[in-house]
């Protein structure tokens, strides 16, 4: 959430994307105030907000590709057609996203549809259910029995064997209140909350045997 103490502006969005990854801050089914069309506006109440963040020396092209992969994932997950993928400008009238609009919104739509980038399908299915790799959100997304095992352990709403943003959020929630031995602890006293399943988090989830 963004809060400006000078004008009491409050804003929030569901996903932040840069050249390195995808980060979820608000669940898909909760309202975030990102559209600029008012508290009861259609954009705020019924759309998923994605923010692309790049430093002046960052890789904007890669960030766009990650955003396109995320949008494709969300389209598939929620059965959203391409005509309902719209820019911030639709809701607020602002020239936003400025750089993408300058290049042409249709080019970004083509990117989502896979005409200019590798389709954001999950990586080749991995059948190893034991710990043997770092699990995190990537583009294309990781898929395998080890991810399914994590989802089952966390009682995720969706068991699809894909390490997407929702699984990352489930992992973060678990890390926040569990220590390296898997014991329940006070929020903030647990593992590093990074949404990544490395060896430490894996052993906390399943033990070392």
Automatic annotation (TrEMBL):
CDD domains: PGRP (cd06583)
UniProt domain N-acetylmuramoyl-L-alanine amidase: residue ranges: 2-108
Entry keyword rRNA processing: no
Organism: Seinonella peptonophila
A Pfam family per the record: Amidase_2
Protein's GO biological process: cell wall organization; establishment of competence for transformation; peptidoglycan catabolic process; peptidoglycan turnover; sporulation resulting in formation of a cellular spore
Keywords: Cell wall biogenesis/degradation, Competence, Hydrolase, Sporulation
Catalytic activity: Hydrolyzes the link between N-acetylmuramoyl residues and L-amino acid residues in certain cell-wall glycopeptides
Family according to the record: Belongs to the N-acetylmuramoyl-L-alanine amidase 2 family.
EC number in record: 3.5.1.28
Protein's UniProt keywords contain Plastid: no
UniProt-recorded name of the protein: N-acetylmuramoyl-L-alanine amidase
Molecular function GO terms recorded: N-acetylmuramoyl-L-alanine amidase activity
């Amino acid at each position: 959430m963004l809060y400006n103490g000078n004008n009491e502006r409050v804003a929030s969005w569901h996903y932040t994307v840069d050249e390195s990854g995808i980060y979820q801050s608000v669940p898909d089914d909760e309202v975030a105030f990102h559209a600029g069309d008012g508290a009861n506006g259609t954009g705020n109440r019924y759309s998923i907000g994605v923010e692309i963040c790049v430093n002046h020396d960052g890789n904007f092209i890669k960030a766009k590709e990650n955003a396109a992969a995320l949008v494709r994932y969300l389209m598939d997950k929620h059965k959203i057609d391409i005509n309902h993928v719209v820019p911030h400008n639709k809701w607020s009238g602002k020239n936003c996203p400025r750089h993408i609009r300058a290049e042409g919104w249709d080019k970004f739509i083509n990117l989502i549809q896979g005409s200019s980038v590798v389709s954001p399908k999950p990586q080749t299915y991995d059948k190893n259910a034991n710990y043997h790799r770092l699990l995190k959100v990537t583009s294309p997304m990781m898929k395998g029995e080890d991810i399914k095992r994590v989802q089952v352990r966390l009682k995720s709403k969706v068991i699809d064997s894909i390490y997407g943003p929702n699984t990352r959020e489930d992992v973060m929630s678990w890390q926040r209140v569990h220590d390296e031995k898997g014991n329940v602890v006070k929020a903030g006293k647990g593992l590093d909350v990074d949404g990544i399943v490395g060896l430490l988090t894996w052993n906390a989830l399943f033990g070392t045997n």
